[in-house]
Amino acid sequence: MSETMGTAVVTGASSGIGAVYADRLAERGYDLVLIARNADKLAHVAERIRAKTSSKVDVMSADLADAADLAQVEAFLRDTPDVTLLVNNAGLGGALKLVNSDVDQMTSLISLNVTALTRLTYAVVPQFIARGTGTIINIASIVAINPEALNGVYGGSKAFVLAFSQNLQHELAGTGVTVQVVLPGATATDFWAIAGRPLEQMPAAMVMRSEDLVEAALIGLDRGEFATIPSLQDGELFDAYEAARRAMIGKLSTATPAPRYRDVG
Ligand code: NAP
Prior knowledge:
This protein is 45% helix and 14% strand. The chain is an alpha/beta fold.
């Protein structure tokens, strides 16, 4: 283990955003455990990183939508004290409307985007709290706040990631554990082809390189930012959105219905 940084576990590290996180975290001095299903692609990413850094890079081939594989990764996280950072990045997208999409595939999407992310977080948080340090980076999406954009189950899964992260940040305040949620806009990865909407159909001005996305997100992390939206040019818009949400806190639960719901008939 690197003396200072420890081990970063990156899910979905065989391609796209996860592979870039692996690369940049190794450059920052982390040892790595890279997780995804495709062992060949993982080995390729690991080899590339070993060739240019002194980081120790291990790979773990696992289908995180499979309960048995997921349990093995959870056990690894619980039993490995070197782990200092978890990037919950593995995720499936969906671009088809409800009537054109298959509910079994959407259920698998929930298993990966919601259940796996949740269980891996549960596996790692207790030891982070016990050590008074650790970082969790959850990869959500802009569809968390724009669920009309793509498939609703995908949007809902990422709204879960945002809400879960908001609660985590709240619950873990003062423990020394850092939580960041990243909301990428359209990013140039295999995601789009897998989700059923080729990237070529997107205006180029709306699509970010995965390298730019990850580097911006790490700058957000370095600055102690909780929610990072690299493509949102005017950050004050999100601050206003968050301020409107916070303004309702303390006013959302009352014994009587609001006057607008009183029967005046
Ligand atoms: P990607 O290139 O398709 O990468 C997805 C990664 O997840 C791959 O490494 C894939 O590897 C892994 N994965 C998929 N199913 C898995 C499973 N069942 N078990 C374990 N690993 C699995 O797409 P990406 O764009 O980098 O996506 C990364 C994250 O960014 C996702 O959470 C996605 O929702 C989010 N995001 C992407 C965009 C975008 O425009 N690209 C925008 C917003 C958010 P294997 O196939 O080898 O398992």
